[in-house]
């Protein structure tokens, strides 16, 4: 009787479960190497789903597809597969700048046309591309008899992880500036997350969810539906539809990067490959990656101000001082913030007084432009909108004409707001509030980049829309902030913890370059408050956190106190022909080697978290048959971010060659930076 009761309980429990809809596989596809497979199914209610397997093991279980509209029935069920087309591609393309000179695009493609069996007979196409290291898909809504315009309330897209794991994520829909520390939680404890969200599954496989080619659409976030299943959550706009477009368009690509480890995620090129090719043509004459210094850190610390007055930072005298410093140290550019009219008063979240072609009376724009040119230095402009995007829209041509006339090759934009959203004013005068990643703002950011390109000016966006690889299509979109950068280390409360940068490498920066503004060798913020880093780590960040335009964020006076470490900042390039991730774990540590474009020299950066760490790195990335001098900048004896010993650094040289190994020893909060200088020609 006891055995009978034990058997009866699970049978009774099973009888309470709902009857699952039967799903039939209607299409299959595989990656070029065959390791990743895709199945597309329709259940007995005509609902489509997709699933992803790797090496025969489920990664993404059956996940729904479809749309919800504000003014029409959902496209979700009662569908049939009307047509299937397949394609494949294996090409290589070159970047004008980047972490790699050339990128291989090798994928298989399957496009499925789903059609409703109801009277409306609307069609929804879904295109999947399978790479050896991931899967991407996007929808297309053709123009058709019963769908000429789409008012999308939400996508019904799902990502149903087949197993649990650990997730690294930051929250969406909070304070609207994306400047949050990354959470590390079980996968089934994630709230609503912004992409990139990175996951280490229980089996060890690493997955990163993001999107590519975000154009004329709302940014995608991830809302946990239940358990380990997430659904797409589009960023709202000021109206009821989250996306409103005439039919005949494709959505951004939804991307699922897959790797054995964290290092493999970084080496993934899928985001770039899913964007359209360069639309600007040859940009070599006007986009020139490099480093810059700036009238900035003293203002972030509170010693100077953006507004006019006795502490105004952007004065002619101060800027000349920075130009002289840049010229003396081979740094090609100087950023100036607070140079224009509009900073006086309450500009925070209200930039309607900003004028981007009218300098203040204590900033001699013409004279400084001429002086910078004489010194072989260019100025980097700054357009802070204070969240008044429509006001900025009205000045785009005049602003970038002014920038070009004053020799500015790059402009840093800003959209600082309070707890509200971005200001938008329609031609009829009606006012709206928009989220940074809603459809209207997505279009605004691209308008800025396209207008700047007309004047051969590049854009470094702060408080931006996230990076989805559009730098391939518009290579003048050179960098973005969109996360917690160095400025948080200036403030007494809320400094970035030692693990922060090791999180960024495998989360946000998987989307693209970040303007983090490293290099504060004084390790000191407001009122002398300590930055949680060693000097060696500040140097390593120039290699680890990629951006083609990188700031030396500290002041000339502070750099004069650290001439040895400052030499690495002067030497390190910002444009690369090759990149290798040698090791890494999300939020713990990472070691990256990069080869300077147009040179035989290599550079290595390694950073850790709050723990002391050590690893052996083989120098297999070096060119065979060539000798090198390794110029090593490592944490000194007793170095520790928690004490004054954070300033301890050892600088030494060592002869090395391909196949040698180096010990990479990281102090708590530490790092290591190495320049491998090629000696002469190759040896036999």
UniProtKB/TrEMBL annotation:
It holds the Pfam family GH97_N. Residues 1-23 form the signal peptide. The keyword Signal applies. Keywords: Signal. Residues 296-482 form the Glycosyl-hydrolase 97 catalytic domain. Residues 575-676 form the Glycosyl-hydrolase 97 C-terminal oligomerisation domain. Residues 30-277 form the Glycosyl-hydrolase 97 N-terminal domain. One of its GO terms (molecular function) is carbohydrate binding. InterPro entries: Aldolase_TIM (IPR013785), GH (IPR017853), GH-type_carb-bd (IPR014718), GH97_C (IPR029483), GH97_catalytic (IPR019563), GH97_N (IPR029486), Glycosyl_hydrolase_97 (IPR052720). This is Alpha-glucosidase. It comes from Sphingobium chungbukense. The lineage of its organism: Bacteria, Pseudomonadati, Pseudomonadota, Alphaproteobacteria, Sphingomonadales.
């Amino acid at each position: 009787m006891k055995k009978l009761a034990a058997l009866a309980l699970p049978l009774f429990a099973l009888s309470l479960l709902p009857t699952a809809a039967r799903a039939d596989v209607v299409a299959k596809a595989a990656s070029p190497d065959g390791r990743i497979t895709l199945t597309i199914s329709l259940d007995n209610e005509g609902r489509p789903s997709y699933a992803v397997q790797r090496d025969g093991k489920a990664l993404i279980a059956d996940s729904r597809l479809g749309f919800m509209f504000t003014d029409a029935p959902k496209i979700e069920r009662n569908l049939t597969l009307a047509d299937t087309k397949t394609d494949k591609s294996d090409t290589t393309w070159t970047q004008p700048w980047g972490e790699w000179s050339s990128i291989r695009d090798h994928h298989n493609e399957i496009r499925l046309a789903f059609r409703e069996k109801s009277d409306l007979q609307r069609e929804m196409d879904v295109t999947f591309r399978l790479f050896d290291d991931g899967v991407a898909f996007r929808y297309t809504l053709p123009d058709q008899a019963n769908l000429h315009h789409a008012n999308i309330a939400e996508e019904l897209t799902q990502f149903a992880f087949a197993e649990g794991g650990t997730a690294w994520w930051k929250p969406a829909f909070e304070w609207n500036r994306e400047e949050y520390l990354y959470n590390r939680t079980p996968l089934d404890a994630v709230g609503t997350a912004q992409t990139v969200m990175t996951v280490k599954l229980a089996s060890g496989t690493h997955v990163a969810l993001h999107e590519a080619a975000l154009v004329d659409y709302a940014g995608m976030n991830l809302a946990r539906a239940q358990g380990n299943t997430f659904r797409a959550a589009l960023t709202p706009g000021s109206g009821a539809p989250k996306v409103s477009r005439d039919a005949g368009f494709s959505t951004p690509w939804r991307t699922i990067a897959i790797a054995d480890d964290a290092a493999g995620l970084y080496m993934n090129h899928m985001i770039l490959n899913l964007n359209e090719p360069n639309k600007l043509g040859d940009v070599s004459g006007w986009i020139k990656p490099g480093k810059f210094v700036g009238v900035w850190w003293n203002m972030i610390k509170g010693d100077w101000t953006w507004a006019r007055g006795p502490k105004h930072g952007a004065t002619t005298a101060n800027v000349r001082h920075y130009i002289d410093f840049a010229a003396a140290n081979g740094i090609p550019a100087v950023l100036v913030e607070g140079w224009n009219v509009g900073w006086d008063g309450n500009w925070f979240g209200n930039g309607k007084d900003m004028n981007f072609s009218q300098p203040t009376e204590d900033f001699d724009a013409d004279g400084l432009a001429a002086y910078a040119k004489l010194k072989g230095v260019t100025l980097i402009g700054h357009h802070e909108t204070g969240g008044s995007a429509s006001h900025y829209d009205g000045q785009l041509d005049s602003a970038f004409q002014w920038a070009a006339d004053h020799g500015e090759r790059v402009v840093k934009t800003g959209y600082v707001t309070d707890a509200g959203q971005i200001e938008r004013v329609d031609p009829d005068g009606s006012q709206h509030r928009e989220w940074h990643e809603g459809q209207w703002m997505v279009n605004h950011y691209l308008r800025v980049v396209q207008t700047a390109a007309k004047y051969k000016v590049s854009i470094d966006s702060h408080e931006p829309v996230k990076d989805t690889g559009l730098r391939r299509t518009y290579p003048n979109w050179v960098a973005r902030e969109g996360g917690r950068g160095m400025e948080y280390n200036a403030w007494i409360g809320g400094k970035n913890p030692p693990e922060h940068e090791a999180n960024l490498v495998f989360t946000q920066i998987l989307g693209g370059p970040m303007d983090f503004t490293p290099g504060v060798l004084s390790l000191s913020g407001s009122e002398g408050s300590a930055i949680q880093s060693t000097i060696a780590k500040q140097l390593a960040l120039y290699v680890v956190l990629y951006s083609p335009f990188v700031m030396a964020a500290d002041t000339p006076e502070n750099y004069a106190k650290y001439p040895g470490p400052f030499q690495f900042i002067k030497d390190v390039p910002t444009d690369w022909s090759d990149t290798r991730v040698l090791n890494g774990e999300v939020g713990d540590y990472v070691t990256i080697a990069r080869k300077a474009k147009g040179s035989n020299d290599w550079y290595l950066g390694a950073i850790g978290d709050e723990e002391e760490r050590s690893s052996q790195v083989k120098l297999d990335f070096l060119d065979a048959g060539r000798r090198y001098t390794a110029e090593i900048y490592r944490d000194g004896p007793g170095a520790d971010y928690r004490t004054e010993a954070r300033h301890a650094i050892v600088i030494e040289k060592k002869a090395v060659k391909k196949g040698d190994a180096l010990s990479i020893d990281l102090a708590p909060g530490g790092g290591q930076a190495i320049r491998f200088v090629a000696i002469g020609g190759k040896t036999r």
